[in-house]
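Structure ticket #2291
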Amino acid sequence: MTAVERALAQAAPVIWNSDQGSHFTSPQYTRLLLDAGVHISMDGRGRASDNIFTERLWRTVKYEEVYLKDYAQPKEAPQSLAAYCDFYDHQRQHQALGYQTSASVYFAPSAVIPAPEAVAPLRS
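Resolution: structure written out below.
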C-alpha cells in the first residue's frame, strides 16, 4: 500500500493540490484520488508562487516545533505535531493576518484580511 493509499484510507480531502510533475499526473496516481472522490488541483506551468504559502508553513512548523523537540519515540511526533497545529491555528498570531489567529479569520462571519501594505514589514 502506498503512502497516498494509506492517507486516503484514513480520510479523503475535498481537494488535493500538487504540481504537474509526471508522478502527480500518472494515471495510477490520479485514479487513486478520483476513486476516493477527491478533486484534483494542479498548479499551472510557471506558477512557482502557488507553492510559497505551503513552503512557508512547513518552514514555520520545522523551526517552531520539529527542530526544537527531541522525540524519544516516533509515535511522539504525530501527537506533538497535532498539538502544534492546534496552537498554530488557534493561538499563534499571524502578522499577515493583522496579528489575528488563522482560526479567528477563517471562522469569522465576514473575514477581512488586511491588505499586505497595511501590515508592518518583517524586520531582519
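Closing remark: The chain has two domains: 3-46, 49-117.
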